[in-house]
Amino acid sequence: MTIPEYDSVFRKKLFADQVALVTGGGTGIGRAIAHELAALGATVVVAARREEPLLETVAEITEAGGSADHVIVNIREADDVEAMVSAVVERHGRLDLLVNNAGGQFPSPAEHISPNGWRTVVDLNLNGTFLVTRAAFNAWMGEHGGSIVSVVADMWNGFPYMSHTGAARAAVANMTMSLAVEWGSRGVRVNAVAPGTIYSSGMSTYDEEFQRTAAQQSSRIPAGRVGTESEASAAVVFLLSRAAAFITGETLRVDGGGSLLKAPMVPVEAHRNMPTYEGFHLAREIPEEWLPQA
Ligand SMILES: CCCCCCC/C=C/C(=O)SCCNC(=O)CCNC(=O)[C@H](O)C(C)(C)COP(=O)(O)OP(=O)(O)OC[C@H]1O[C@@H](n2cnc3c(N)ncnc32)[C@H](O)[C@@H]1OP(=O)(O)O
Ligand SMILES: NC(=O)C1=CN([C@@H]2O[C@H](COP(=O)(O)OP(=O)(O)OC[C@H]3O[C@@H](n4cnc5c(N)ncnc54)[C@H](OP(=O)(O)O)[C@@H]3O)[C@@H](O)[C@H]2O)C=CC1
Fold it and tell me: Does residue 4 sit within a domain?
């Protein structure tokens, strides 16, 4: 099958002569970003732990007329990360664009997350993102400038049953602001994109029950639907581009308005376990019909 070039809304040679590194670029949102950047003229290096999806994405991009390469990496390992960034600069001579897209987590009530489970998710989504960002700055961007975008999540009002990733992604949004300030004078912009529920191939890594819950999110999203991989990619590409030259330290929501609603992602169980406080004897007591019915 012939692979057509990515149908980007951006100008064809936007990233000509630039080199981009996309972590997690072999699958889902990362794969879409890799395709879009390559269609816009960048040489794209995709990096992750499994070689097969990386090779497939590289082959697709090459077939579509773009330039791509891959590196195997576990972003939780500092030595791996250093080797990845060195390989990109050695092979391609520069590193202009970094997309911290690799990430993931598992749904679980907080009390059942083991210490190692918590550490693993924070290591991947926060520490891994920091390691890659730091390595890209030290190896290239600190001297030559560049643009960094990290993919986080809709953690704005907490992330029930995903507390580990919520904490890690909020930390990345905060790190994004710190680094934007520290590195502005070096010509490096640092931003993030916070996707809501995106119908990415990554969704199929979850069990059926979770996927059903995710599908039901449509009814609480003002856009009336979940998002596409391309919609997440377009936001990342915009922030990487010169069109965003005056934007740094920002986390852009790509969630169809979902994060604006007060409705929780998961329903609150009816209970009477939260005692009220009435410090004033003339205060109104909450009447029975205003309390949850068991
Ligand atoms: C309400 C719906 C809203 C929908 C919004 C959706 C928003 C987000 C969507 C996405 O991100 S899409 C998909 C992205 N992709 C993934 O998430 C990938 C899948 N996840 C993983 O690969 C793992 O979760 C991982 C932990 C991130 C990495 O796993 P790794 O193989 O490195 O770890 P392990 O060695 O297997 O485990 C380490 C540690 O973690 C515990 N653990 C792992 N999975 C689970 C689980 N499902 N439940 C409970 N605990 C888990 C595991 O037991 C280990 O701990 P110890 O046993 O050693 O204590
Ligand atoms: N889909 C959605 O609704 C949302 C997704 N996100 C985030 O967007 C990003 C992309 O997700 P999506 O495309 O949906 O899902 P995917 O599961 O397809 O993408 C995750 C990618 O990260 C890579 N990865 C995971 N762990 C590591 C690691 N330790 N080192 C290097 N690479 C790693 C995976 O490759 P490999 O396993 O080969 O290493 C994979 O390519 C993730 O950070 C995800 O959490 C955020 C909000 C919503």
Answer: no
Predicted pLDDT at 294: 66
Predicted pLDDT of residue 217: 86
| Residue indicated by tokens 């794969």 | 31
Cα–Cα distance, 81 to 65 (Å, whole number): 28
For 49, the domain range is 19-290
Which CATH number characterizes residue 273's domain? Answer: 3.40.50.720
Helices (H), ranges, the chain: 28-39, 51-63, 78-92, 115-122, 128-136, 142-144, 163-183, 208-215, 229-240
Question: What is the rounded (10 degree) CA torsion for 7, 259, 25, 143?
Answer: 100
Q: Whose CA is nearest to atom 2 of ligand 1?
A: 214
Give me the amino acid identity at 13: K
**Residue 168 covered by a domain:** yes
The whole-model pTM stands at 0.97
Per the domain annotation, does 80 fall within a domain?
yes
Q: How many domains does the chain have?
A: 1
CA 170 to chain centre: 11
- Give the separation between CA 101 and CA 23, rounded to whole angstroms: 5
Q: Which residues of the chain have pLDDT under 70?
A: 1, 294
From 51, 52, 55, 101, the mutation candidate for ligand 2 (largest count of ligand atoms within 8 A of CB) is: 101
> How confident is the model over 201-233, as pLDDT tens digits?
999 999 999 999 888 888 889 999 999 999 999
The response to whether residue 249 sits with its C-beta less than 6 Å from ligand 2 reads no
**Angle in degrees, CA 184, 178, 168, rounded to 5:** 135
Q: Does 197 sit in the ligand 2 pocket, CB within 6 Å?
A: yes
